[in-house]
Amino acid sequence: MGIILAILIFGFIVFFHELGHFTLAKLNGIEVTEFALGMGPKLISKTYKGTQYSLRLLPIGGFCAMGEDAEATGATDNFHSKSVWQRISVIACGPVFNFILAFVCALILIGNIGYDKPVISEVTKGSAAATSGLEKGDVITKLNKTHIDVFREITLFNMMHSGEDVDVTYLRDGKTHTVNLTPRYDKEAGRYLIGITGGAYSKPTVLSTIKYSCIEIKYQIKTVIDSLKMLVTGKVSPKNLSGPIGITQAVSTSYNESKAYGIKMVVMQMLSIAILISANLGVMNLLPLPALDGGRLVFLFIEVFRKKKIPAEKEGYVHFIGFALLMVLMVFVMYNDIVRIFK
Asked: Of 93, 99, 118, 133, which has the fewest beta carbons less than 10 angstroms from its beta carbon?
């Protein structure tokens, strides 16, 4: 069941991404030759107003095929015949729809389970936090210059700045205080810790649900960006990268652990995973790399500044090379996932 859920979640998120491209293409009068739900062999299809809508065998996403013949002349509905800003909107709306989907999922999740306020519930004896005078009930508002809205941001900050001195700003009895502390290495946890626990969930109002749903998306985006920084700087090994197989395993594990608590807990866990995957896909697709939406946007913004299109064949070569490298990366990631499974 976990594997089926993983396929459905990942497939719907990819489908929704393509729906973003499709929606803006239609709004800008661009020809869409086919909009498909699923991949692989075609099961059923129907043509409506020049677009073939099809259902395909494999439930792993979908695609939006637009008229992009760069050599077409006189065609007003060709992608390349549209203004540069219209083309930018079509390409950018795929990742934007990922963030919209993540936000909608966050609204449902937070509306049901609440949000984790950055309130200390316990201070570990002998820890850096205890030595610095932090107490149960203190509300963490800043770590150095990073504003803290939810308790998970404290954990993320500690991971990204492992072992570094940190200025902790907190509220106690309505007054703001700041202390400087040095996290201490915990042998049992295998990492540097401040020495606090917390994250109790608070029941949200309608307005706080909207507010903390936005914060959730910000948190997920920041997590992806910070993780990429750690990967580039060598703080994280490429062996830690995970792909569809790893996602499937995570969904399956999450399902098996939550099913004993009832269907609502399963749904909440799946929503949490959907937020993570959708936000990740949105950020990754905006990276300025060939073959990704971000790579195509780079060429379009170059066109904005030089007021002249880059030759389609040259852009095509770049994207082809990028796609080939992306496939190599996918094979490497799949290998990592398989190795982890059999460890």
From this structure: 133
